[in-house]
């Protein structure tokens, strides 16, 4: 089984011009060739195979953000300003925080591996 990536404590919004808050403490799960955005309670917001996900870094007033396009919808995952959300190999854990660049690279690498 692939190790994967599980980030917790991220803010997830959707929309182009008018941002709509979906969760303040959401989760990003990257496992088995699939990227899934979850609420803080583990309810799936959206998910797609990584080779179909568009991802890029976003600069928003000093915040650490990543933009995702999944299944025709656009999402902004805000990692915050501080040390960042935890990134763990499983549902729980205390691995060091990931940077925006690390998250984008992980998604792109997983997508390239599937192609």
Largest sheet: 8 strands, antiparallel
Mind telling me the C-alpha Rg? 13 Å
Distance between the termini: 18 Å
Structural class: mainly beta
How would you explain this protein's 3D organization?
Residues 90-96 have low confidence and may be disordered. 13% of the residues lie in helices and 50% in strands. The longest helix has 15 residues, at 100-114. The protein has 115 residues and is mostly beta strands. It has one helix and eight strands, in the order ββββββββα. Strand 5 and strand 6 (63-70) form a beta hairpin.
Task: Please write out the topology.
Elements: E1 5-14, E2 20-31, E3 34-38, E4 44-49, E5 54-60, E6 63-70, E7 73-80, E8 87-88, H1 100-114
Antiparallel strand pairs: 1-2, 1-7, 1-8, 2-3, 3-4, 5-6, 6-7
List keywords for this structure.
1 helix, mainly beta, eight-stranded antiparallel beta sheet, 115 residues, 13% helix, 8 strands
């Amino acid at each position: 089984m692939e190790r994967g990536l599980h980030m917790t404590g991220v803010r997830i919004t959707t929309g182009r011009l008018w941002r709509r808050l979906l969760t303040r403490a959401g989760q990003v799960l990257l496992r088995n060739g699939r990227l899934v955005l979850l609420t803080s309670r583990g309810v799936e917001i959206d998910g797609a195979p990584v080779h179909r996900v568009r991802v890029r870094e976003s600069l928003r007033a000093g915040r650490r953000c990543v933009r995702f396009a999944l299944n025709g919808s656009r999402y902004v995952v805000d990692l915050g300003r501080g040390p960042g959300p935890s990134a763990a190999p499983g549902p729980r854990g205390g691995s060091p925080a990931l940077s925006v660049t690390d998250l984008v690279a992980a998604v792109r690498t997983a997508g390239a591996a599937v192609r």
